[in-house]
UniProtKB/TrEMBL annotation:
The species this protein was found in: Chelonoidis abingdonii
Keyword presence, Metal-binding: yes
GO MF, one annotated term: metallopeptidase activity
GO biological process terms on file: proteolysis
Role: Probable zinc metalloprotease.
Name of the featured protein: Archaemetzincin-2
Length: 369
């Protein structure tokens, strides 16, 4: 496989450029059976997917690396093409008996302007559009104390953290019989073991479980004024969860909603068996830090889109229409009074999704020609 790195003369940014032939094989395969599967797709779907190996495509662009700390630079991994995904005997597959994605909220979410119920509905509906064809159910939110997890104050950032491994054990007990997977989400920071500073999330792919925190997606998390910082505490009583009562959680604004949607769909993608993408800009790219995560697009490249389509069986145009509908549903027919309410944070804040909406429209334009 050919990888070409272009180093820009006035900076450290690199572009990962795969050849047309490599991208074509990653998408379609040389396997006769898989080639036939591709040929049987709707012509309009193939027209969109073929954008993967069009050098002048405005929809799917090469991956850029901005520093040595970016994921691909610091975490060398083998690539995963469609054939490898399709033939993976260990990946989880939805079935008619196990076709529901369950989301378990842990702790409190957001400020008084946006209720936990509203925020969860936004995430649920987005996830159902992204994984079009599967149902998503939000479980009743539980306080941290119900999980019985260990917790601590981070000695460097002075914020509360809860133990990711303990939360996975809790989720395993709560996983419903009809679940394709169960994922826990929280606004409280996570740590996997005492020696680690933090972790964004942790998953057990074979058991269809994951726990993910949105705490560090608050724009103020790394600032000195972050409201979640506590006074230094040497040791917290192991069974006293009262420290979480009234603990700070960030306001749900448009950027936090976008980051939450991106993280949730990325991590569930791993449970489907999608590896980190190294083909084109894609939501399944790995990320080491918030700046790199923000550079990732919200949606899948054609290679990862074909993987997901083969796992679920949706029509691509219907999936994009559902995603567009999610972004537009609170805006259609809205009068001036309700627009003011939206600005106050009472309706779904989708301002940060503007670029994504324009991209989806371009994809639909290709699909509907």
């Amino acid at each position: 496989m050919l990888l070409v790195f272009y180093l820009f003369p006035f900076g450290q940014m690199k572009v990962i450029e795969h050849s047309e032939q490599v991208l074509r094989m990653a998408l379609i395969s040389k396997n006769t059976q898989l080639v036939k599967l591709y040929e049987n797709l709707e012509s309009r779907e193939k027209c969109l997917l073929n954008e993967a190996f069009q050098p002048d495509s405005v929809l799917f662009r090469p991956i850029t690396l901005h520093s040595e700390s970016d994921w691909i630079s610091s975490h060398p991994e083998p690539t995963q093409d469609f054939e490898q995904f399709y033939n993976d005997p260990y990946r989880s597959r939805p079935t008619s008996q196990k076709s529901t994605i369950y989301v378990q909220p842990i702790g409190s979410f957001g400020d008084t302007k946006v209720s936990t119920e509203d925020y969860m509905k936004w995430l649920k509906d987005y996830c159902e559009a992204f994984y079009y064809g599967l149902s998503v159910k939000i479980l009743e939110p539980v306080p941290v104390s119900h999980t019985g997890c260990a917790f601590r104050v981070n000695e460097y950032t002075c914020n509360l953290q809860i133990h990711a491994g303990d939360l996975l054990k809790y989720l395993k007990k709560k996983k419903p019989e009809d679940a394709f997977c169960i994922v826990g989400i929280t606004m409280i920071d996570l740590y996997p073991r005492a020696s680690w500073n933090f972790v964004f999330g942790q998953a057990s792919l074979t058991e269809g479980m994951g726990i993910f925190s949105f705490a560090r997606y608050d724009s103020d998390f790394y600032s000195a004024s972050y409201k979640g910082r506590l006074k230094r505490v040497k040791k917290l009583p192991s069974a006293d969860y009262s420290v979480f009562d009234g603990y700070y959680t960030p306001a749900i604004n448009s950027m936090l909603l976008l980051r939450s949607c991106k993280t949730l769909t990325h991590e569930i993608g791993h449970i489907f068996g999608l590896h980190h993408c190294q083909w084109l800009q894609c939501v399944m790219q790995g990320s080491n830090h918030l700046e790199e995560s923000d550079r990732r697009p919200l949606d899948l490249c054609p290679i990862c889109l074909r993987k997901l389509q083969s796992a679920i069986g949706f029509h691509i145009v219907e999936r994009y229409q559902a995603l567009l509908g999610w972004m537009d549903e609170d805006d259609s027919g809205m009068d001036a009074e309700f627009r003011n309410e939206a600005k106050m944070g009472l309706l779904k804040p989708v301002e940060a999704f503007k670029e994504y909406r324009e991209w989806v429209l371009k994809c639909l334009d290709v699909l509907q020609k």
